[in-house]
Amino acid sequence: MARDDAGGDCVDLWRMERDLRAVGYATVCGVDEAGRGPLAGPVFAAAVILPFEIVLEGLGDSKKLSEKKRNRLYDEIVTNALSYGIAYADHKEIDELNILNATFLAMNHAVDKLTIKPDVVLVDGNRDPKLIYRSRCVVGGDGKSASIAAASVLAKVSRDRHMVEMAEKYPQYLFGKHKGYGTKLHFEKLHEHGPSEIHRETFLRKMREEERDAEENGLRSATRRLGAWGEGVALRYLQSKDYTILAEGFRSHFGEIDLIARDGGFIVFVEVKLRKKASFALAREYVSKDKQSKIKATASLWLASRRSSLQPRFDVIEIHAPEGEDTESPEIVHVENAFW
Predict the structure, then answer these.
(1) Integer Cα distance of 117 and 28 in angstroms
(2) Is the pLDDT of residue 8 over 50?
(3) pTM to 2 decimals?
(4) Is residue 200 one of the residues assigned to a domain?
(5) Residue 51 near residue 59 (C-beta atoms within 8 A)
(6) Which residues span the domain enclosing 113?
(7) Which pLDDT value is given to residue 60?
(8) Which of 133, 148, 166 lies at the terminal end of a domain, its last residue?
(9) Is residue 175 part of a domain?
(10) Could you count the other beta carbons within 10 Å of the beta carbon of residue 113?
């Protein structure tokens, strides 16, 4: 059992595995990744087959656990797992394949390391990595499945430990503090030393574009800078989910749309909301009816200048960053079809 996102009622992390066993899938494997968003280092993936209904105290989404708890769970998982595999795709593979395909590569390598053949593999997210076994995608799976949650812990801890090792090899970047994520400290070290051998060139390209814009427009206020940082986090998140970015900060006399992207058969108009306090309302509650109307009107103008058969969709991306730009791994909540 695990606490839900609000810290209230307990979530039965074994329900999904129990339902699968009831229809004949006795051996269930969970797969998850860590490190899609950072500017440096590899993306890790893990595959785990746990003993059915084993009790692992505190198991849940690894991003919401303390480092101490993650390390304890890591040891318990590798000790008790029936089988597990951990793999990664490095920065060169990320630049060559793109982050989504590099993640799939790491997932496939992790599954290949299993010594037991699973009946079905549960993969966190909504993208199929084309595994050799029967698989199912589970959005938010690290909070719904014990197997995926265990894989989340193994991937996160493995990547963090790898970046601590990189901190010894490249001490000037202080990778041990930010693990390669785009924190203020990391950007400062990049400005001071330039990129290292393990930085992701495709991710840094966006940073350079933002720097050129900042030079042309002058220094921004602290509020605007924080907002731009949040939009950058949202943009990299969407890219990691294989969205195609079509426009940033599109303005009209009605208002502004933070990001416009393509997702399959949809044109997605994205409103980005940044919050520093967990007690604040959910992101979609910040988008008032008046704001929704302005976004829709602006979207209509954007669509009017382009001929497209794609369906429009209005999403909200909430970024919880308690330390602002210094937040190592901001929590991201993506609400699809937030309003119509």
Answers:
(1) 9
(2) no
(3) 0.63
(4) no
(5) no
(6) 2-166
(7) 78
(8) 166
(9) no
(10) 13
